Protein backbone atom coordinates (compact mmCIF):
# COMPACT_ATOMS: atom_id res chain seq x y z
CA UNK A 1 0.00 0.00 0.00
CA UNK A 2 1.31 3.42 -0.97
CA UNK A 3 2.25 5.63 1.95
CA UNK A 4 0.06 8.72 2.38
CA UNK A 5 1.62 12.10 1.57
CA UNK A 6 2.30 14.23 4.66
CA UNK A 7 2.43 18.01 4.81
CA UNK A 8 2.30 20.72 7.40
CA UNK A 9 3.78 23.77 9.07
CA UNK A 10 6.51 23.71 11.71
CA UNK A 11 7.47 26.78 13.77
CA UNK A 12 11.07 27.21 14.90
CA UNK A 13 11.27 29.19 18.13
CA UNK A 14 13.99 29.96 20.62
CA UNK A 15 16.09 32.70 22.11
CA UNK A 16 18.02 34.90 19.65
CA UNK A 17 21.16 33.34 18.13
CA UNK A 18 20.46 29.70 18.99
CA UNK A 19 20.83 28.76 15.30
CA UNK A 20 17.27 28.90 13.92
CA UNK A 21 18.30 30.52 10.63
CA UNK A 22 21.33 28.22 10.29
CA UNK A 23 19.03 25.20 10.66
CA UNK A 24 16.55 26.61 8.13
CA UNK A 25 19.24 27.30 5.55
CA UNK A 26 20.77 23.84 6.07
CA UNK A 27 17.54 21.92 5.72
CA UNK A 28 16.34 23.92 2.71
CA UNK A 29 19.80 23.69 1.15
CA UNK A 30 20.02 27.36 0.27
CA UNK A 31 20.43 30.65 2.11
CA UNK A 32 16.95 32.08 2.57
CA UNK A 33 17.14 33.48 6.09
CA UNK A 34 19.50 36.30 6.91
CA UNK A 35 22.12 35.06 9.35
CA UNK A 36 23.84 37.47 11.67
CA UNK A 37 25.46 37.48 15.06
CA UNK A 38 23.25 40.44 15.92
CA UNK A 39 20.17 39.54 18.00
CA UNK A 40 16.76 39.83 16.34
CA UNK A 41 17.95 39.40 12.75
CA UNK A 42 14.62 37.83 11.83
CA UNK A 43 11.99 40.52 12.26
CA UNK A 44 9.15 38.75 10.49
CA UNK A 45 8.19 35.17 9.76
CA UNK A 46 10.30 33.64 7.01
CA UNK A 47 9.00 30.44 5.50
CA UNK A 48 11.31 27.77 4.15
CA UNK A 49 9.76 24.98 2.11
CA UNK A 50 11.29 21.49 2.12
CA UNK A 51 9.73 19.15 -0.42
CA UNK A 52 10.53 15.43 -0.55
CA UNK A 53 8.86 12.46 -2.26
CA UNK A 54 6.73 11.62 0.75
CA UNK A 55 6.21 14.98 2.46
CA UNK A 56 6.38 18.75 2.36
CA UNK A 57 7.37 20.65 5.50
CA UNK A 58 6.96 24.42 5.64
CA UNK A 59 9.34 25.73 8.31
CA UNK A 60 8.50 29.10 9.84
CA UNK A 61 11.53 30.84 11.31
CA UNK A 62 9.92 33.22 13.77
CA UNK A 63 11.40 36.27 15.47
CA UNK A 64 13.10 35.22 18.69
CA UNK A 65 10.58 35.12 21.51
CA UNK A 66 11.94 37.39 24.18
CA UNK A 67 10.70 39.82 26.79
CA UNK A 68 9.86 42.90 24.69
CA UNK A 69 11.61 46.17 25.52
CA UNK A 70 9.80 48.40 23.02
CA UNK A 71 6.88 48.47 20.56
CA UNK A 72 8.87 46.75 17.83
CA UNK A 73 9.66 44.03 20.35
CA UNK A 74 5.95 43.70 21.18
CA UNK A 75 5.20 43.29 17.49
CA UNK A 76 7.89 40.64 17.02
CA UNK A 77 6.78 38.61 20.04
CA UNK A 78 3.15 38.79 18.87
CA UNK A 79 4.18 37.49 15.41
CA UNK A 80 5.96 34.56 17.05
CA UNK A 81 3.13 33.86 19.50
CA UNK A 82 0.52 33.79 16.71
CA UNK A 83 2.71 31.38 14.75
CA UNK A 84 2.55 28.86 17.61
CA UNK A 85 -1.20 28.45 17.20
CA UNK A 86 -1.16 28.23 13.41
CA UNK A 87 1.25 25.31 12.98
CA UNK A 88 1.24 21.51 13.22
CA UNK A 89 4.39 21.18 15.34
CA UNK A 90 6.89 23.37 17.18
CA UNK A 91 10.66 23.13 17.38
CA UNK A 92 11.95 24.84 20.53
CA UNK A 93 15.64 25.30 19.80
CA UNK A 94 18.26 25.88 22.48
CA UNK A 95 22.03 26.39 22.43
CA UNK A 96 23.81 23.42 24.06
CA UNK A 97 26.78 25.63 24.88
CA UNK A 98 24.77 28.34 26.64
CA UNK A 99 22.38 26.01 28.45
CA UNK A 100 19.27 27.07 30.33
CA UNK A 101 18.59 30.79 30.65
CA UNK A 102 15.81 33.08 31.85
CA UNK A 103 14.80 33.68 28.26
CA UNK A 104 14.03 29.98 27.92
CA UNK A 105 11.64 30.12 30.88
CA UNK A 106 9.83 33.02 29.19
CA UNK A 107 9.32 30.78 26.14
CA UNK A 108 8.27 27.75 28.23
CA UNK A 109 5.64 29.94 29.91
CA UNK A 110 4.28 30.88 26.44
CA UNK A 111 4.17 27.19 25.47
CA UNK A 112 1.80 26.31 28.34
CA UNK A 113 -1.12 27.59 26.24
CA UNK A 114 -0.18 25.60 23.12
CA UNK A 115 -1.77 22.26 22.21
CA UNK A 116 0.71 21.28 19.46
CA UNK A 117 3.57 18.77 19.88
CA UNK A 118 6.70 20.62 21.00
CA UNK A 119 10.15 19.17 20.25
CA UNK A 120 13.19 20.34 22.21
CA UNK A 121 16.03 20.76 19.71
CA UNK A 122 19.42 20.95 21.42
CA UNK A 123 21.57 22.69 18.81
CA UNK A 124 25.36 23.23 18.61
CA UNK A 125 26.19 19.82 20.12
CA UNK A 126 29.49 20.01 18.21
CA UNK A 127 30.62 22.63 20.74
CA UNK A 128 30.11 20.61 23.94
CA UNK A 129 31.30 17.30 25.40
CA UNK A 130 28.61 14.56 25.15
CA UNK A 131 28.66 14.15 28.94
CA UNK A 132 27.37 17.72 29.33
CA UNK A 133 24.22 16.95 27.34
CA UNK A 134 22.42 14.58 29.74
CA UNK A 135 22.14 16.96 32.72
CA UNK A 136 21.15 19.77 30.35
CA UNK A 137 18.38 17.65 28.77
CA UNK A 138 17.13 16.49 32.20
CA UNK A 139 16.84 20.10 33.34
CA UNK A 140 14.57 20.98 30.40
CA UNK A 141 12.57 17.76 30.71
CA UNK A 142 11.61 18.74 34.27
CA UNK A 143 10.21 22.06 33.04
CA UNK A 144 8.04 20.90 30.10
CA UNK A 145 6.55 17.71 28.67
CA UNK A 146 8.29 17.64 25.28
CA UNK A 147 7.09 15.26 22.56
CA UNK A 148 10.74 14.35 21.99
CA UNK A 149 14.21 15.77 22.67
CA UNK A 150 16.60 15.76 19.72
CA UNK A 151 20.26 16.91 19.86
CA UNK A 152 21.62 18.31 16.55
CA UNK A 153 24.33 20.43 14.99
CA UNK A 154 22.65 22.63 12.37
CA UNK A 155 25.95 23.96 11.06
CA UNK A 156 27.43 20.45 10.53
CA UNK A 157 24.14 18.69 9.77
CA UNK A 158 24.53 16.13 12.60
CA UNK A 159 21.24 14.30 13.32
CA UNK A 160 19.23 16.74 11.17
CA UNK A 161 17.99 13.89 8.96
CA UNK A 162 16.62 12.08 12.03
CA UNK A 163 14.88 15.29 13.17
CA UNK A 164 13.18 15.67 9.78
CA UNK A 165 12.05 12.03 9.95
CA UNK A 166 10.50 12.57 13.42
CA UNK A 167 8.71 15.73 12.24
CA UNK A 168 7.24 13.86 9.26
CA UNK A 169 5.79 11.24 11.62
CA UNK A 170 3.90 13.94 13.49
CA UNK A 171 2.55 15.77 10.43
CA UNK A 172 -1.00 15.16 9.16
CA UNK A 173 -1.79 13.74 5.75
CA UNK A 174 -2.18 16.65 3.39
CA UNK A 175 -1.53 18.26 0.02
CA UNK A 176 1.65 19.75 -1.39
CA UNK A 177 1.11 23.42 -0.56
CA UNK A 178 3.92 24.81 -2.70
CA UNK A 179 5.45 23.76 -6.04
CA UNK A 180 8.42 21.44 -5.46
CA UNK A 181 10.92 24.00 -6.81
CA UNK A 182 9.74 26.76 -4.47
CA UNK A 183 11.90 26.99 -1.37
CA UNK A 184 10.64 30.13 0.31
CA UNK A 185 7.87 32.65 0.74
CA UNK A 186 9.63 35.91 1.56
CA UNK A 187 7.16 38.07 3.43
CA UNK A 188 9.79 40.75 3.92
CA UNK A 189 9.77 41.42 0.16
CA UNK A 190 6.15 42.53 0.40
CA UNK A 191 6.79 44.63 3.51
CA UNK A 192 9.78 46.36 1.86
CA UNK A 193 7.76 47.28 -1.24
CA UNK A 194 4.98 48.61 1.00
CA UNK A 195 7.50 50.80 2.86
CA UNK A 196 8.72 52.28 -0.43
CA UNK A 197 5.14 52.82 -1.64
CA UNK A 198 4.20 54.51 1.64
CA UNK A 199 7.05 57.05 1.29
CA UNK A 200 6.17 57.71 -2.36
CA UNK A 201 2.52 58.34 -1.47
CA UNK A 202 3.45 60.51 1.49
CA UNK A 203 5.87 62.70 -0.46
CA UNK A 204 3.76 63.17 -3.60
CA UNK A 205 0.39 63.42 -1.80
CA UNK A 206 -2.51 64.23 -4.17
CA UNK A 207 -0.32 64.59 -7.26
CA UNK A 208 0.14 60.85 -7.67
CA UNK A 209 -2.69 59.25 -5.70
CA UNK A 210 -3.16 55.48 -5.51
CA UNK A 211 -1.76 54.83 -8.96
CA UNK A 212 1.56 53.77 -7.43
CA UNK A 213 2.74 50.19 -7.15
CA UNK A 214 6.21 49.03 -6.17
CA UNK A 215 7.84 45.90 -7.56
CA UNK A 216 10.89 44.27 -6.02
CA UNK A 217 13.42 43.55 -8.77
CA UNK A 218 16.08 41.94 -6.56
CA UNK A 219 17.22 41.55 -2.96
CA UNK A 220 20.51 39.95 -2.03
CA UNK A 221 23.02 39.81 0.78
CA UNK A 222 26.59 39.18 -0.33
CA UNK A 223 29.09 37.09 1.61
CA UNK A 224 31.77 39.80 1.59
CA UNK A 225 29.45 42.52 2.90
CA UNK A 226 27.06 43.18 5.77
CA UNK A 227 24.86 45.24 3.43
CA UNK A 228 21.61 44.02 1.84
CA UNK A 229 21.31 45.19 -1.78
CA UNK A 230 17.79 45.98 -3.00
CA UNK A 231 16.57 47.10 -6.40
CA UNK A 232 12.93 48.11 -6.86
CA UNK A 233 10.74 49.88 -9.41
CA UNK A 234 7.98 52.40 -8.68
CA UNK A 235 5.16 51.83 -11.18
CA UNK A 236 2.81 54.69 -12.21
CA UNK A 237 0.05 54.98 -14.81
CA UNK A 238 1.01 58.12 -16.76
CA UNK A 239 4.24 59.78 -17.98
CA UNK A 240 3.33 62.97 -16.05
CA UNK A 241 3.23 60.93 -12.82
CA UNK A 242 6.62 59.43 -13.64
CA UNK A 243 8.04 62.96 -13.88
CA UNK A 244 6.66 63.79 -10.43
CA UNK A 245 8.06 60.60 -8.89
CA UNK A 246 11.51 61.21 -10.35
CA UNK A 247 11.52 64.93 -9.47
CA UNK A 248 13.96 67.61 -10.54
CA UNK A 249 17.29 65.93 -11.34
CA UNK A 250 16.04 62.78 -9.58
CA UNK A 251 15.52 64.57 -6.26
CA UNK A 252 12.10 63.05 -5.43
CA UNK A 253 13.14 59.45 -6.17
CA UNK A 254 16.27 60.02 -4.08
CA UNK A 255 14.20 61.30 -1.13
CA UNK A 256 11.74 58.37 -1.38
CA UNK A 257 14.70 55.99 -1.31
CA UNK A 258 16.39 57.77 1.59
CA UNK A 259 13.28 57.62 3.81
CA UNK A 260 12.35 54.06 2.85
CA UNK A 261 15.92 52.84 3.43
CA UNK A 262 15.78 53.91 7.11
CA UNK A 263 12.66 51.80 7.71
CA UNK A 264 14.02 48.84 5.76
CA UNK A 265 17.25 48.86 7.78
CA UNK A 266 15.21 48.65 11.00
CA UNK A 267 13.13 45.80 9.52
CA UNK A 268 16.13 43.76 8.37
CA UNK A 269 18.52 44.74 11.14
CA UNK A 270 21.32 45.46 8.68
CA UNK A 271 22.66 48.15 6.33
CA UNK A 272 20.73 48.53 3.08
CA UNK A 273 21.74 49.80 -0.35
CA UNK A 274 18.49 50.74 -2.11
CA UNK A 275 18.27 51.54 -5.81
CA UNK A 276 14.96 52.78 -7.24
CA UNK A 277 13.62 53.29 -10.75
CA UNK A 278 10.32 54.70 -12.04
CA UNK A 279 8.32 53.12 -14.84
CA UNK A 280 4.99 53.77 -16.60
CA UNK A 281 2.51 50.92 -17.02
CA UNK A 282 -0.64 52.48 -18.42
CA UNK A 283 -3.86 51.84 -16.50
CA UNK A 284 -2.28 48.98 -14.51
CA UNK A 285 -4.97 49.09 -11.83
CA UNK A 286 -7.55 47.77 -14.29
CA UNK A 287 -5.52 44.76 -15.43
CA UNK A 288 -5.89 41.72 -13.21
CA UNK A 289 -2.66 40.14 -14.39
CA UNK A 290 -0.68 43.24 -13.47
CA UNK A 291 -2.51 43.50 -10.15
CA UNK A 292 -1.46 39.95 -9.36
CA UNK A 293 2.11 40.66 -10.48
CA UNK A 294 2.24 43.59 -8.07
CA UNK A 295 0.93 41.50 -5.17
CA UNK A 296 -2.70 42.60 -5.08
CA UNK A 297 -5.37 39.92 -4.92
CA UNK A 298 -8.55 40.48 -6.87
CA UNK A 299 -10.69 40.03 -3.76
CA UNK A 300 -8.88 42.85 -1.98
CA UNK A 301 -9.19 45.40 -4.73
Give the tags.
301 residues, alpha/beta, Rossmann fold, GMP Synthetase, Chain A, domain 3, seven-stranded mixed β-sheet, three-stranded mixed β-sheet, 10 strands, elongated, disordered C terminus
Summarize the amount of helix as a percent range: 25-40%
- H/I helix tally: 9
User: What class do helices, strands and sheet pairing give?
Assistant: alpha/beta
Biggest sheet features? 7 strands, mixed
Proportion of beta-strand residues: 15-25%
* DSSP strand tally: 10
Description:
There is one protein chain. With 301 residues, the protein is of the alpha/beta class. Helices cover 35% and strands 23% of the residues. The chain has helices spanning 20-28, 71-84, 102-111, 130-141, 160-170, 187-204, 239-246, 251-268, 288-293, and strands at 6-13, 46-51, 55-61, 89-95, 118-123, 148-151, 184-185, 213-221, 227-236, 271-280. The strands form 2 sheets. A 7-stranded mixed beta sheet has the order 6-5-4-1-3-2-7, with helices on both faces. The chain is elongated, with a radius of gyration of 22 Å. Residues 33-44 and 296-301 have low confidence and may be disordered.
Amino acid sequence: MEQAYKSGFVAIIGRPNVGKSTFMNHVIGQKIAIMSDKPQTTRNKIQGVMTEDDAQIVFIDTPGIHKPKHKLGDFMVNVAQRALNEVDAIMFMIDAEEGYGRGDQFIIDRLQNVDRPVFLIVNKIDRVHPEQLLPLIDGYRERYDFAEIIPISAIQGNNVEHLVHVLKEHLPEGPQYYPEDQITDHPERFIITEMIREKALHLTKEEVPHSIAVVMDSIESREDSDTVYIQATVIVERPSQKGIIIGKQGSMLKEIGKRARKDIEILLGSKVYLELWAKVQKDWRNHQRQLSDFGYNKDEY
